[in-house]
Write a structure and sequence with these properties.
Elements lengths: L11 E2 L3 E8 L2 E2 L4 E8 L3 E6 L8 E8 L2 E14 L5 E7 L11
Antiparallel strand pairs: 1-4, 2-3, 2-4, 2-6, 4-5, 5-8, 6-7, 7-8
């Protein structure tokens, strides 16, 4: 999805601690790392991470949602470096995640 196109699902501002591994076509790029979501929807998430990640790379994610782990695969669609050395990444999920649909 191009950044000027409307989102497939409305995003909700929500904080979840997330573990992830960043991948490319050859395999794992980063060790298992931790980030946090800034917003989530059925089809993607905005996340803050603490290492540089390339747009187009893949991510294996695990969201801690009220004590349950939700495992998701996605593709990084955009990356924005922040002044504090963090990165905000947009991840589009490979499949819609109904568990994330109507978040309170």
């Amino acid at each position: 999805m191009h950044k000027d196109e409307p989102r497939q699902s409305a995003r909700v501002s929500k904080l979840f601690l997330t573990s992830y591994v960043n991948l490319d076509e050859k395999g794992q790029i980063t060790p298992v790392s931790v980030g946090r979501t800034l917003n989530v929807s059925r089809t993607g998430a905005g996340m803050e991470v603490f290492q540089e990640i390339e747009a187009g790379s893949l991510m294996d994610l695990e969201f801690d949602i009220q004590g349950s782990l939700l495992k998701v695969k996605g593709r990084v669609v955009h990356v924005r470096p922040e002044d504090d050395g963090c990165y905000v990444v947009g991840v589009e999920f490979e499949e819609p995640q109904e568990m994330l649909a109507p978040l309170p």
